[in-house]
Amino acid sequence: MWTKPSYALIVLLSCILSGSWGFLEHDSWISIDLHHSLSPSRPEYFSHRGNISIPSLNAGLSTVLQNELSESELEELKTLSQQNGFYRLKATVTYPNGNTQRFLTSSKACSLLASQLNDVLWISLDAYGFVTGITAAQDPTPNGSGCSSEELAQIKEKRFRSDVIIRHAELAPVPDTGSFIQKYEREREARERGEVRDNRGFFAKYWMYIVPVVLLVFISGATNQDAAK
Amino acid sequence: MHRPLHIAGGLISLSLLLLLSTCSALYEDQIRKFDWRSTHVGAVKQVHVDLNHFQPRVLLSTHEQVVASLCPKSGEIVWRQVLEQKARGDIKLLQVSGFSDDSSDTAAAPVGSRLGFDMLTIQGHAPALVRGWNTNIGTIEWEWSIIPLNTERAQDALWFYSNSVLYHVVPVWRSHLEVTAYFATSGHTTGTTSKIMAAWIKTDSCLLSGTYFVCQDGKQLISLDLLAKSTQVIATSLEAEPTDKIEALAGLNGVLIANKKLVSVNKDQAVCPELSSASYVLGSFNYRKVVAYADLADGNLKINAVYLDNCSPVPELQMSLAFAEHYGTPSLRSFDCKLKRNGDGKSCLFLFGTSAESIVAVQQGRVRWAREESLANVIDTQFIDLPLADTEGTLENEMKGKAVDANNLKRDIVSAFMRRITTQALQIKSLFLHVIGLGPPPTDTQRAGLVRDSFGLHKMLVLLTRTGKIFGIDNIAGKHHWKLYLPNVSGFENAEEMRLIVQRSSKHFPLQPLCAIVAKFPSSGNGVLFRFNPITGRAAEGGLLQLDFQIKQIALLPETEKDFVKGILMLDATNKVHVQPKHATPLADGMYLYTANVKTAELEGFYVKHAGNDLTCTPIWNVRLGGHNSEQHIIGVASKNPIEHVHSQGRVLGDRSVLYKYINPNLVAFVTQAPDATHKSVLNLYLIDVVSGSVIFSMTHRKVRPPLHIVHSENWLAYSYFNDKVRRTEITTIELYEGNAQANNSVWSSLQAPSMPLVERQSYIIPTIVEALRETITERGITNKHVLIGTASGGIVEMSWHLLDPRRPISSTTQGREEGAIPYIPELPLPTENHINYNQTIARLRNIYTAPSGLESTCLVVATGLDLFVTRVAPSKTFDILKEDFDYILISIVLVVLTSGSLIVRHLASRKLLKQAWK
């Protein structure tokens, strides 16, 4: 229950972040074809899962079209998760100039089923808008919700619901000499005008006076006690 | 409520600043107490032994571009000049006056400086630097340079010296030779450049022998005297085609070594053609020219010599001596005899360079001294705990026995008691025997003083060098305990060096520690494993093991239960996995591996599964950092130290909340670099989880180029690079945080990890050139982490993470101050008192390695380069050890006085009470 809103927040946040730090000088579009390997007996066979088109990498909005799993495919996925196998996803990225690049990502079949076929596709871009990696991830499931046969039997969901998040490369910081010089200048001007305001705490400012006084009080208190006796 | 906290925060930051300002420098009397340095010159290139100078000397140039003078008696460095690196500093010629290649100027002639120089060197090609040296103190006396018109051709240029004139020979392959003469000391040309047509010259088969330019063509030697009036080409046929490259015999004009035999292409120079040896050298003995030669046969080095004029043997110079295997194959480089001691040959010094990059001096039939110059190229190091003393060992055994039988407690108590009694009885017996002098002799390691100390500061430093020579060095005394040489190993593709791996530590007492070297067999390209005991330096578990596959990636498995060996998991070129030793195979189940191709910048992840005695390896992810046309190349990969412990899981903020660190042990930083049209050069940093293959974070630097140095630890990363725009070296630091809550605090799983950590980043200017970066590491990770910065000037600066912290606030807010962060200043300070190697400069510093000691406060450091420097640092001061100037006497006196005083006072008080009671 709790994960959903926080998740939406992350998406929103990432959109803001990508808007502010990482953006491409030449915006472009990409489309991604998804194929997945479900059968534990035939690990090299990849069947079509769907495709994603992203019309603008800077805007980060996407259209996702995905096939529904057939009954047999769902069963295969269940067998795979019983063996604690990997659900492997092959993504073929097509760029505007017709070039294609192939990416592979994996997640535990069990956590995909446990999340009711909801997954997040993270698409990482480099500074020029080329894809560096695609990762399919599920929301972390609470511990214990494993893939026992009873739990698997209850899963009937066959439709994938995927969110696509684009991660841009950010621009690295440079040594901030400007603001440091400004700060230094401001302090110097303030000193020249004689209005250097000490904004330290009271104790931090006057501890050198307070400590001896306190010590004196203690000492005198101790001697007074002796005298009283 | 808020006020006191605020004050406390202020105090903390104040005390922090105070702490930082007090330096951790050494006191004068601590110099060389915890550290030592050994200086090297590198593998020898040209060498001249000169025993007849008023100051006997060995002058040499090396492949590390060093010119040095050694003491012929001890091999110590008299002076050393570390010259320019790379192609610019490549030493092409070392000419010592009196050792002229001109045949008229014999080696036996008295040394005079009438030639205007003592020694001259020629370095590089564009510009070619000619320097005259004062060989007594190692200073440059004069220098001139030339810039050739065609720099590309000049790369293959050769130089020779004859009668005060230096000749610059530029071969234009398959066309002609361009010869220019310069006065050696002034650099003025003597005339114009002469072109000599020679269509027969080919790359890689030609050389200069004195004034002769010689090329090998099949079974023929084609040569030309460059100083002769006529440009007549002489062809000399050989008996057979040479298997190795032909070499020139220095000192004789037109004499070459081909097929282990001497060949002369100069009609005026007779040689002794029936000799056969691996190495020859020309010298003089009893005022006659001799050719000495040396060969290794069955571990014995045989040195012989013949007079050049009649080829009769010189019995005085004949000797045979045992030659240690770890020196490798020797080749005789120079020899000289004292003239005044007439005739017995005992004063002759033979100097050898070996395949293990040692310099060995032989005199009077024994090795007089040897220098281990392979230490100038250390590629991997490990600190190994020393074995326990025997008594402690039995005690350790007893503890172990207890731990194993803990389930059946009743019997255990009795048996443990019995064992304790017997071991103690045995200890008393051995002590008694030891006292009366009948005890068992101490073992080798004990005799060498190799017994573990109580603080774990004394360790065996194992160094692997580029030539395949391995050293076991005492990290406190610097003594070489053992040396091993593997002649046929080399580094891997992708410029990956050989690896030194600890397979079993010294913790498992009766079992000896075990190290392994993973390398490539150069001829076949297959992998090689060499297992050895790092304390004794002897081969173990069968020693050298040739593998029948090429190694692409290696990983260490957890310890086996049987013999506590950490298996090595290897991925071969066809993506199959292998485990060594075989019985550790089941432990490879569930391992993840990744590979990175430097050229295409493509990463691949694999999952290893063990089913039915078989290992399978499935690719599970890939990442392409190469951009569209693979123009990006990986220039740096940094993972975390696998033995690292992170003690503190979070950082306390100004408002007393905790910011949890993102501590992902599988996070690896990759840096790629490529030229760029608009920004000149672009550097990209990627943080990638190598188990799930997800790109956690990426960042781009514009107008930035290598050299790149990177250090990755805990939740932070620091890397240095050169900023091309403002022409300075900068350091960027990154810290990763999970946020105010921790996702899974017990076990980390990359497949269920928080996907987006918070990334704090900042850049700093560092007013020096960085050559190496390394973090300090301690046993439990409680001590602060400092970053050790190796600079180009050979210093190591210990920098606190507080200064590199990316959270240093730009405006001095109260929040930042309460957090204990220092306000941001763009330039990092490099105070001299933070140089941990004070004046012990490390020439050509290349790498710094750190290892924890037994004390939490102390971290052991070894810096490698041309020199080797070993020390220890205490980033948070030595809080768990008493100062060495701690006054034990004073504290004992105070204790005794106080105790006795209290007793006396008590006695007096009781007497007083008694008296009062009587009143």
Residue share in β-strands of chain B: 35-45%
Number of strands of chain A: 9
Protein chain pair with the most extensive contact, residues per chain = A-B, 49 and 56 residues
Helical content band of chain A? 25-40%
Radius of gyration of chain B: 33 Å
Task: Give your account of this protein's structure.
The complex is a heterodimer of chains A (229) and B (919). By secondary structure, chain A is α+β, with helices and mostly antiparallel strands. Chain A folds into two domains: 3-167, no CATH class; 177-228, no CATH class. Chain A is built from six helices and nine strands, in the order H-E-E-E-H-E-E-H-E-E-H-E-E-H-H. Chain A has helices at residues 3-20, 71-82, 109-114, 149-154, 177-193, 202-228; strands spanning 30-37, 47-54, 63-66, 86-94, 100-108, 118-125, 131-137, 161-167, 170-171. In chain A, the strands form two sheets. In chain A, strands 3-2-1-4-5 form a five-stranded antiparallel beta sheet. In chain A, strands 7-6-8 form a three-stranded mixed beta sheet. The radius of gyration of chain A is 30 Å and the shape is elongated. Chain B has 919 residues and is mainly beta. Among the domains of chain B are: 278-364; 389-445. Chain B is 13% helix and 41% strand. In chain B, helix 4 (390-404) packs antiparallel against helix 5 (409-435). Chain B is globular and about 125 Å long. At the A-B interface, strand 5, strand 6, strand 7, strand 9 and helix 5 of A face helix 1, strand 42, strand 47, strand 48 and strand 52 of B. Chain A: Belongs to the EMC10 family. Chain A: Keywords: Endoplasmic reticulum, Membrane, Signal, Transmembrane, Transmembrane helix. Chain A: The chain crosses the membrane at residues 6-24, 206-223.
